[in-house]
């Protein structure tokens, strides 16, 4: 296992990029500690796969360095980096047994059969596939094939990092939760450094201790799942994480007071001096309440999702979602919206601009 450092990393697929917009990755600095569970989260095209390929050695970055335990590996080929990778589609040999599939990475490196047997047996027990060891891989279900693919990545003890590239894409939805739980359990048991790449917020938040959220080649926030939900550093994070995502509403500022539709809105902290740019208020639907006073709105849609109701409202032409317990108002009803002050924030040009008020002792 290894600590992974990305230092001043940039990459463009053009030989001579002219400006920042022509870089697929825009100056990334990251430290991933030995033994940690991390996720790269973002939509298609945000740079996740480019970054993964650079870490694995399939791409050499245009600028910057990749360090494994402070050793520069920027120009080393993949086979010199001791990396295991699990892909979207299971990479296994159908004509081999499950045992031989799990044993292959070890035999390929000349390990003795006693070591092979010990490691294969241990990984098979962790994956709960011991009873399948003598079966040909061709007859396995898709989820079990992906288990074997994961096992091939975990069977070696000398890897610096195990990387998972959208590993549950082809798995049926009802099996994804089981495999996510198994992967989390495996990380806790083998204590390997793991990086999980996905566009699915549920996969990222349930697996990782730290999530790196990317947008258009940039890292917009790094934090725990709780950090990303409770305090988004950027409106993209607030919108991308959550179901539904954070309400992002246009506002103005007068005398250091935020105004939405002309009505004052209390924020978590003071508005910065001389604030300018694109001003927006961010508040998650979980922290929007319906009452007899507040910002006037009209209910446009009500969705019953089982655990709660999602009430979509129109407030001066702006959509505002509120998550409430039943009963919910009817479509077309006039309501008033109240935002929880401690969870209502000002964003300037997309970035968080307020800080919570300090509480006196």
TrEMBL record:
The record, for InterPro entries, names: AAA+_ATPase, ABC_transporter-like_ATP-bd, ABC_transpr_FbpC, ABC_transpr_MalK/UgpC-like, Mo/tungstate-bd_C_term_dom, NA-bd_OB-fold, P-loop_NTPase, Transp-assoc_OB_typ2
Do you know which Pfam families this protein is assigned to? ABC_tran (PF00005), TOBE_2 (PF08402)
Identify the residues that the record assigns to the ABC transporter domain, covering every copy. 4-241
Q: Which PROSITE patterns match?
A: ABC_TRANSPORTER_2
Per the record, the domain of life is Bacteria
Task: Could you list this entry's UniProt keywords, alphabetically sorted.
Answer: ATP-binding, Cell membrane, Membrane, Nucleotide-binding, Transport
Supply one GO CC term from the record.
Answer: ATP-binding cassette (ABC) transporter complex, substrate-binding subunit-containing
Q: Which CDD domains match?
A: ABC_Carb_Solutes_like
Family, similarity comment: Belongs to the ABC transporter superfamily.
Q: What is this protein called?
A: Carbohydrate ABC transporter ATP-binding protein (CUT1 family)
The organism named in the record is Shimia isoporae
